[in-house]
Amino acid sequence: MIPKLELHLHLEGAAPPAFIRAQAKRKSVDLSRIFDEQGNYAYRDFTEFLRIYEAACTVLTSPQDFHDLTLAVLEHSAAEGVIYTEAFLSPDFCGGGDLAAWRDYLAAIETAAATAEAQMGITLRGCVTCIRHFGPDQARKIAHCAQETAGSFITGLGLAGDENMLKPQDFAYAFDAAREAGLGLTAHAGEWGGPQAVRDTLRDLGVSRIGHGVRASEDPRLMDELAEAGTVLEVCPGSNIALGVYKRLKDHPIDRLRRAGVKVTVSTDDPPFFHTTMRREYDALAETFGWDAPEFEEINRNALDAAFCDADTRAKLAARLEAP
Ligand code: ADE
Ligand code: ZN
To answer: What residues of the chain score a pLDDT lower than 70?
Structure first.
């Protein structure tokens, strides 16, 4: 199996529905409304997706829950051939957003990551993530969580949530604080917003990576600029199809972006919500665009270069890519 690197995975968004159902049952919380008859997450559009995502998080109430979630998620990823994952971690969703307990939650996630690395050979790094629709003041607090815990495990700051709300500029303080702490920077943009959203995000937040960014494909000049600057796009094709950004994979711009010289990578975003896995993403790209070893090697190299991990980790991953 091809070894894979994934840069864009939301830890809570990767929670298997059965895991959330079990937590809900244990805590006597009725979450039946967020599942369909087959037991999968049920939503009709992006707004509803965000709502049920947050409802699912309400049953993740202790560091132990996050320990167990991390192990479950990494087990799934390792089985897909993933050797490195950067996960978005949201202090807002840890135990109802008690930021004073962030370090305890993080310690539990790190313990699980160490176990998974020893037992399954998968490396996890964390990217603390602000939720856009919770607003700039909350984002400042989240950036402080990131600043305080920045190190070999917490390597970045991200921005997720409803792209239709607020402007990148509103989050400049949070991103400036994270930059000062030496963290890598990424923000979701160009998923629901057009090319201008990508331009504004690059200008106002100074990120090296864009979460999604696929709508940049609507502006050839912007594609040239991204290629020139070496900006990396964390592309999540299955997510875009499931949420209706594009109808079918053949309409998706990932291959056009790559051919235009933009550095693309491939991730699953929130795999159980979108009925995807890394293997399914790779298989679909091979089938739809004829991608083969050279293309997959290229996206893995892009991911390796753009990963927010330290040099030692990067060198170890490079060796594993060369001799899987
Ligand atoms: N949080 C989890 N998945 C997301 C997505 N696709 N867009 C914005 N925020 C998210
Ligand atoms: Zn995302």
So the answer is: 324
Indicate the SS3 state at residue 159: strand
CB neighbours (10 Å) of residue 293?
A: 9
List, in sequence order, every residue forming a beta bridge with 89; answer none if it has no partner.
128
Q: Which of 163, 191, 234, 281 is catalytic?
A: 191
Spell out the domain ranges in the chain. Answer: 4-318
Q: Is the CB of 197 under 6 A from ligand 1?
A: no
Whether the CB of 160 sits within 6 Å of ligand 1 = yes
Task: List phi, psi (to 5°) of 188.
Answer: -70, 130
Ligand 1 center to residue 132 CA distance, Å? 10
Q: 4-318 in CATH: which number?
A: 3.20.20.140
CB atoms within 10 A of CB 217: 22
CA 63 / ligand 2 centre spacing (Å): 23
Q: What would the pLDDT profile of 280-308 be if each residue is shown by its tens digit?
A: 999 999 999 999 999 999 999 999 999 99
Q: How far apart are CA 210 and CA 190, in angstroms?
A: 8
- Check residue 96 and give its pLDDT: 87
How far is the C-alpha of 172 from the C-alpha of 215, rounded, in Å?
22
Q: What pLDDT digit, counting tens, does each position of 106-159 carry?
A: 999 999 999 999 999 999 999 999 999 999 999 999 999 999 999 999 999 999
Rounded CA-CA distance 195/201 in Å is 10
Q: pTM for this one?
A: 0.98
- Name every residue whose Cβ is closer than 8 Å to that of residue 78 and which is 6 or more positions away in sequence: 116, 120, 121, 122
pLDDT at 306: 98
- Which residue in 276, 281, 278 sits closest to 291, CA to CA? 281
